[in-house]
Design goal:
Blueprint lengths: L1 H22 L4 H9 L3 H9 L3 H14 L8 H17 L5 H13 L3 H28 L1 H4 L7 H30 L1 H11 L5 H16 L7 H28 L10 H12 L8 H13 L5 H30 L3 H12 L1
Helix pairs in contact: 1-14, 2-15, 3-12, 4-5, 4-12, 5-6, 5-15, 6-7, 6-16, 7-9, 7-11, 7-12, 7-13, 10-11, 13-14, 14-15
Length: 343
């Protein structure tokens, strides 16, 4: 209990720190004025297209799950993504990353460890895909230098962030590959560390570890690797499309490709384990808008961030709540499910 209290306290303070910089020097009259000028058609599109990434992620997930079960229902994969994001948006610590695979495993009667392993693969490719898109954007700079100018400091910040993100994803990828291709040796190491624990507990952990490694089976097929990489680009280009519509809604259309660095920065903010992405997402969104599009004033950047965050949270949570209501489950039950595995 004390450990959780300290952890939540630190997360709360982190959120407050980011929110302080997000709201600093804001003119609320201007912010509200920008809200009143949002184009209604594009505003409706923002609401309607919130589930787009849930759909593309569900379709992509199939290529990882097919090694365990070929006839996984698309509706269950969509629901797993929806309830996972709902838990992440409501509770701190990105608990939804565990709830998502555990929910699907229960629905489809699949091995929990295996499905958890597929989510690790997803996150690796999410980071790699956005780093690749950012790399292509920066390499193509001579082609758009006269149309879209980035100052040296912003360009340097993007390069450093891209290298750090790619480095972190590469490290996780190498560990994952080592676990898969040296499975027996890995399990022997796990068994050695578990010797002091009761036999029943050790067997349970070893079985879960074995299932988790099986979830990395995807890496064994070059064909699946290429298809999954292509689908990862579809997922993230769809997310770029969503934010592109946001700029149109505010009467500030920009070239599609110029949204790539902004989406990369929001991904960094969203990965910070604050409840509902509050603070981290807001700070990085405002920073991205004002540094990449200097003709947009900070008050409009704040307005755009508040709107896009609120729309995503409300619509996603409504979808998640509807699914939970249909299943007769509650958010607290899912929270306990994720915490029991995390423990």
């Amino acid at each position: 209990m004390k450990k959780n209290f300290v952890r939540f306290g630190l997360v709360f303070l982190l959120s407050l720190a980011f929110l302080y910089f997000f709201f600093r020097s804001v003119d609320w009259g201007e912010v509200l004025g920008h809200l009143g000028r949002v184009h209604p058609v594009f505003a409706v599109l923002l609401v309607v297209l919130v589930p787009l990434h849930l759909l593309t992620r569900a379709f992509r997930w199939r290529f990882l799950l097919m090694h365990e079960k070929k006839d996984v229902k698309f509706s269950n994969m969509f629901a797993g993504n929806a309830v996972g994001f709902t838990v992440t948006l409501v509770f701190p610590g990105r608990l939804g990353e565990l709830v998502k695979p555990l929910y699907l495993a229960g629905k489809e009667r699949m091995r929990k460890g295996f499905v958890i392993g597929t989510v690790v693969v997803e996150r690796i490719f999410d980071v790699f895909t956005m780093c690749a898109l950012l790399g292509l954007f920066l390499l193509a700079k001579p082609l758009y230098a006269s149309l879209f100018k980035i100052d040296a400091e912003t360009s340097r910040m993007l390069k450093v962030s891209g290298f750090l993100g790619a480095g972190a994803a590469l490290a996780v990828l190498l560990v994952s590959l080592s676990l898969y291709f040296f499975r027996e040796r890995t399990l022997r190491v796990f068994a050695w560390f578990l010797r002091p624990f009761p036999e029943q507990f050790s067997k349970k952990i070893l079985n879960l570890a074995g299932e988790f490694i099986e979830g990395l089976k995807f890496f064994h097929s070059v064909g699946n690797l290429l298809v999954y990489t292509a689908l990862s680009f579809v997922v993230w280009l769809g997310i770029v499309l969503y934010y592109w519509i946001l700029f149109f809604a505010y009467g500030h259309p920009v070239a599609f490709f110029t949204l790539i660095p902004y989406v990369f920065l929001t991904m960094i903010g969203a990965s910070i384990p604050t409840p509902g992405m509050v603070g981290g997402f807001h700070f990085f969104s405002r920073m991205g808008i004002t540094s990449l599009y200097p003709d947009i004033d900070p008050n409009m950047a704040v307005s755009m961030t508040i709107v896009v965050h609120a729309v995503q949270v409300v619509v996603t949570c409504l979808i998640g709540y509807a699914i939970l209501w249909k299943d007769g489950l509650s958010l607290l039950q899912l929270k306990k499910l994720g915490e029991s595995t995390n423990a």
